[in-house]
Amino acid sequence: MYFSMPDHGGTHIDAPRHFGRSGMPINEYPLENCIVPGICLDLRHIAARAEIAPSDLQAAVKAAGVAIPPRGTILLCTGHHARTFPRPAYATDNPGVNVAATEWLAEQAIVHFGIDSMRPGPEGDINALVHKACLELGITHIESLCNLGACSARGQFRFIGLPLKWRDGTGSPIRAVAVFG
């Protein structure tokens, strides 16, 4: 049997190395960052290709009524995956965080954030700047999550998303799981 896959295909975590050569490769990424408390924010009202700003995140946290867990994760349910996958719009029409929102997320003392699209920022220059900001801010992100609507408005959960230990890898597929209760 032969098995082949990309390190940035499907649901995956970006290693800090993906953002620059000075970043940590995936085989050195701490596993304690992959089993953490988490919350899911409902951002389904954000338009396609729009920038998610800090005020959007703050309003979603308030609406969720759940505290952001330190050293945890915040999953961003934009509804993008549910609306567009597997159509071509999945690759182009996602909303995403801008640099200011990435900075706000890092200020919350999280280890990473996740989103239901194939990039953390909207397509184009903003997305590249969000990747660069992640390296500078010491956080990373998870891309191409799905079924986040099932996690919204349910409170805190235990997030599990373990990467493969690919030497010097810039990312890895994960199986993302939210455990409630």
Notes on the protein architecture:
The N and C termini lie far apart (39 Å). The chain has one domain (12-171): Putative cyclase (Glucose Oxidase, domain 1). The strands form 2 sheets. An 8-stranded mixed beta sheet has the order 9-1-7-6-4-2-8-10. The protein has a two-stranded parallel ribbon with strand order 3-5. With 181 residues, the protein is of the alpha/beta class. It is built from 4 helices and 10 strands; from the N terminus they run E-E-E-H-E-H-E-H-E-H-E-E-E-E. The protein is globular, with a radius of gyration of 15 Å. 21% of the residues lie in helices and 22% in strands.
Would you spell out the secondary-structure blueprint of this structure?
Elements: E1 12-14, E2 35-42, E3 51-52, H1 54-64, E4 73-77, H2 80-84, E5 96-97, H3 99-107, E6 112-115, H4 125-137, E7 140-143, E8 157-161, E9 171-173, E10 176-179
Parallel strand pairs: 2-4, 3-5, 4-6, 6-7
Antiparallel strand pairs: 1-7, 1-9, 2-8, 8-10
Helix pairs in contact: 3-4
Task: Name a few traits of the molecule.
181 residues; alpha/beta; Glucose Oxidase, domain 1; eight-stranded mixed sheet; two-stranded parallel ribbon; 4 helices; 10 strands; 21% helix; globular
- Record the strand order, biggest sheet: 9-1-7-6-4-2-8-10
- CATH names the topology as Glucose Oxidase, domain 1
| Percent helix range | 10-25%
Describe the global form: globular
Reported CATH architecture: 3-Layer(bba) Sandwich
N- and C-termini, Cα separation: 39 Å
Rg, rounded, reads: 15 Å
Number of strands: 10
> What is the domain total for the residues?
1
Q: What is the makeup of the main sheet? A: 8 strands, mixed
Overall mean confidence score, pLDDT: 96
